[in-house]
């Protein structure tokens, strides 16, 4: 009878031992979307978006990551914001209808569809990017991933880097091609605190 009772207790406790999905919110002060594009074959111009937000849910048992990131397109910067004697700076041009059209499309979004993991470590995020009203698949490779207690707050935090690429012409952003490259490299650096 005692063995049956103990067995019943263990069976009842087993579902409680299963790790529940964990939800994290991106830290906007430590999360940035960077991009790089060829400029006339001479150099690579790097830029970034200074404002983004998002969440991801990490389910270790199911081996899945559900991610959504929202990027404010008007926050684009390449380090060229002063007009000088020009009619507009490069950053102003990037916000115009020639590029991100930030007035009509103030946000671009990335939503995951699938993820490849190695144990607890995401290796690849397959998702869809919506830019200029066009949605296309974009895959991100996770180059760095670490989860640990935050050194100051002691809250659980995950962070890392992810890289990918796209052709901007596929989203309707065709100004300046081929002098300004069509191929865009993406680097996302992120930190996210557990909710």
Architecture (CATH level 2) name: Beta Barrel
In total, the number of strands is 11
CATH-defined topology: Lipocalin
Largest sheet: 8 strands, antiparallel, barrel
Shape: elongated
Poorly predicted regions: 4-16
Strand content: over 45%
How many H/I helices?
Answer: 2
Number of domains: 1
Q: How would you name the oligomeric state of the polypeptide chains in this document?
A: single chain
How far apart lie the N and C ends?
43 Å
| Fourth CATH level, the homologous superfamily | Lipid/polyisoprenoid-binding, YceI-like
Helix content: 10-25%
CATH class: Mainly Beta
Structural class based on helices, strands and sheet pairing:
mainly beta
Would you write up a description of this structure?
This protein has 195 residues and is mostly beta strands. 11% of the residues lie in helices and 54% in strands. It has an eight-stranded antiparallel beta barrel with strand order 1-4-5-7-8-9-10-11. The protein is elongated, with a radius of gyration of 21 Å.
């Amino acid at each position: 009878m005692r063995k049956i009772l103990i067995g019943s207790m263990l069976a009842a406790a087993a579902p409680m031992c299963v790790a529940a999905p964990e939800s994290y919110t991106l830290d906007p002060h430590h999360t940035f979307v960077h991009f790089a594009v060829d400029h006339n074959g001479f150099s690579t111009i790097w830029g970034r978006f200074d404002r983004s937000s998002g969440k991801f849910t990490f389910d270790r048992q199911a081996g899945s990551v559900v991610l959504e990131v929202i990027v404010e397109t008007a926050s684009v910067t390449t380090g060229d914001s002063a007009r000088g004697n020009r009619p507009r700076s490069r950053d102003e041009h990037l916000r115009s209808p020639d590029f991100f059209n930030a007035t009509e499309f103030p946000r671009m979004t990335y939503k995951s569809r699938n993820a490849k993991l190695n144990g607890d470590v995401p290796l690849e995020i397959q998702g869809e990017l919506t830019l200029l009203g066009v949605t296309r698949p974009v895959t991100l490779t996770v180059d760095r991933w670490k989860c640990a207690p935050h050194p100051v707050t002691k809250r659980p935090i995950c962070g890392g880097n992810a890289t990918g690429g796209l052709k901007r012409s596929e989203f309707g952003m065709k100004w300046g091609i081929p002098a300004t490259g069509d191929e865009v490299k993406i680097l996302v650096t992120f930190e996210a605190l557990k909710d």
